[in-house]
């Protein structure tokens, strides 16, 4: 049996238990609203399976598991929890998860090797304070959250290792002035936001290292001439915008490396 087959079997057993609990799982201390469990594979058996996996295999299994499953299966036993926290590099919360007072689940700060964090439509109005712990985060998805005053919180600027940032659908009117300090950023998604005056925030042009930029459905009528600074841009989405006279801005022609 090869590694891929083993991975499918392991994940299959985890998902069968997850589905038996239902789709909504509380990640907080009050479990009174959590559906009662009637899993086809016992929780203890799954924990035993995690405990016996070597680190490289455990890391791969965890990378495919949604966050609620990691918390439910991996952190409910102290023996397994330490290894789970040390080998988890990605936490992807379900679309529509909710975090009271912009606070992530207790214990999340212990995931010291976290590189990917996804919190789409999580009811956030500000960035969770625990984010400051994840200095090595490379991918952050906070799309479809409604931040206070229509501005992306400046706390985002502390995540200096970010390579991918998704803030689509956050009803943003502007972006932090220091966004250009995220010098590792290669992919930025600001789609489905209506920026002030219907123009691309100028601060985005201070990110010449971008390779992928998604600007669809932003009600833009034009693009900055400084857009030509994106000399390394390979992928650009400006669909569903209302450019003057229905023509693409001429500055697009200066993007010689554009592929999509």
Question: Can you describe what's shown?
Answer:
- Helices cover 22% and strands 8% of the residues.
- The protein is of the alpha/beta class.
- Residues 16-40 have low confidence and may be disordered.
- The relative contact order is 0.07.
What is the element string, with H for helices and E for strands? HHHHHEEEEEEE
Instruction: Please report the distance between the alpha carbons of the first and last residues.
Output: 40 Å
Note the beta-strand portion. 5-15%
Level-1 CATH class name of the domain at 89-254:
Alpha Beta
Strand order of the largest sheet: 1-2-3-4-5-6-7
Structure classification = alpha/beta
Overall number of strands: 7
Q: Give the proportion of residues in helices.
A: 10-25%
Q: From the alpha carbons, calculate the radius of gyration and give it in angstroms.
A: 21 Å
Q: Can you say what the CATH homologous superfamily of the domain at 89-254 is?
A: Ribonuclease Inhibitor
Q: What is the CATH topology assignment of the domain at 89-254?
A: Leucine-rich repeat, LRR (right-handed beta-alpha superhelix)
Biggest sheet architecture = 7 strands, parallel
The CATH architecture classification of the domain at 89-254 is Alpha-Beta Horseshoe
Provide the residue-averaged pLDDT. 82
Instruction: Give the helix tally.
Output: 5
Q: Can you tell me the residue ranges where pLDDT is under 50 for at least 5 consecutive residues?
A: 16-40
Quaternary arrangement of the chains shown? single chain
């Amino acid at each position: 049996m090869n590694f891929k087959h083993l991975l499918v079997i392991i994940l299959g057993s985890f998902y069968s238990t997850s589905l038996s609990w239902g789709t909504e799982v509380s990640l907080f201390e009050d479990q009174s609203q959590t559906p009662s469990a009637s899993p086809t594979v016992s929780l203890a058996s799954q924990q035993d399976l995690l405990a016996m996996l070597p680190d490289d295999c455990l890391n791969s299994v965890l990378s495919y598991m949604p966050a609620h499953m990691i918390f439910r299966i991996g952190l409910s036993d102290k023996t397994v929890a330490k290894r789970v926290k040390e080998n988890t590099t990605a936490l992807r919360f379900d679309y529509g998860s909710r975090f009271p007072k912009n606070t992530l689940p207790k214990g999340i700060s212990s995931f010291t090797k976290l590189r990917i964090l996804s919190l789409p439509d999580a009811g956030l109005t500000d960035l969770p304070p625990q984010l400051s712990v994840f200095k090595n985060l490379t991918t952050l998805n906070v799309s479809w959250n409604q931040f206070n005053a229509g501005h992306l919180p400046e706390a985002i600027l502390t995540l200096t290792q970010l390579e991918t940032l998704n803030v689509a659908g956050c009803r943003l009117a502007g972006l932090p002035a220091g966004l250009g300090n995220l010098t590792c950023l290669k992919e930025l998604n600001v789609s489905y936001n209506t920026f002030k005056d219907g123009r691309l925030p100028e601060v985005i042009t201070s990110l010449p290292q971008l390779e992928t930029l998604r600007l669809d459905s932003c009600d833009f009528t034009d693009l900055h001439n400084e857009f030509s600074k994106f000399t390394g841009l390979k992928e650009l989405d400006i669909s569903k915008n209302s450019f003057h006279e229905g023509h693409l801005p001429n500055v697009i022609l200066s993007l010689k490396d554009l592929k999509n």
